[in-house]
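Protein modeling request. Please complete all fields; requests missing the sequence field cannot be processed.
Requester role: graduate student
Desired output: 3D structure, token encoding
Chains: 1
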Amino acid sequence: MTGTDVLWERHPNGRWIVGDAGNQPAVVAVPPALVRRRPDVAVDGGRVGRLDYRAASLRGVGHLETGKPRQDSYVVTVTRGDHWLVGCVADGVSDGRLSHRAADLACEKLAGELIDGLAAGPDTDLDTLDWAAGVAGVNAAIRREFLAAARVEDADLADVRALMSTTAVAFAVAARPDPDGAHRAVVASLAGDSAALVLDGDGWRPVTAVKGEGEEMASNAVRPLPREVEAEPVTLALRPGDVLAVVTDGIGDPMGSGGGVVGRFLAEQWAGPPDTIEFANQVGFYRKTFMDDRTVIAVWVAPEPA
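Delivered output (306 residues):
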């Protein structure tokens, strides 16, 4: 963006700066000490039906300088017959040494449950999806991994969360429109402070609760999995030209409800599906005080043909 008030610009190293970068460009990465190698960056992109999607997960500046691994995770996939695009983002809670594994398990289990629930294809009634089974599957998978890691035979979920816990948001979008031109979709925030927003002609609007409104420091209160929770799915009708963004709080905190400088930056960059590598660069912008891992799955509904 150019003009007398420059709100975002490229750093000489090619990364975006949104507002004040602070000392983030000077941070030197410390590699995490993990037996099971975990990349600092994961990216995906593709097209299914009338949907384009991009996904990126980046190790945040805070973890780069302390040697902690990327604790965010995502899964993006399609159902049999390419009828539905399915995804999940998860944010492992920083205090847990194995929370990155909890995030992986949450995404794998929730995406798998959604794929099973959408087996009826385009005629699936989204109100019949069994979110409770998804939560139970995540809780059981994380608990099993904890028992193996701790070499114990039993444990309360509170003990499990001390070592490995995670937030999670899962979604599904119909790859092709209904007769009225809308794409049916559902989003459920199952734990913690990850969120979903939709970009349309009026700007960003939150689909799930947002943790902050773009303030410099947001609350860190979180109620992660594994625990007993009741999902509150939200059904949507996405129109041609809409963008659904499902995010962890590394993006959600600086973005808030989308009206601030970060929301305006992303709205401009995501007016259409960017190159997959450039999408990851856009997710990895520098902004002072916001140092957490960042993960986004963005879904573009193709505009009506001219």
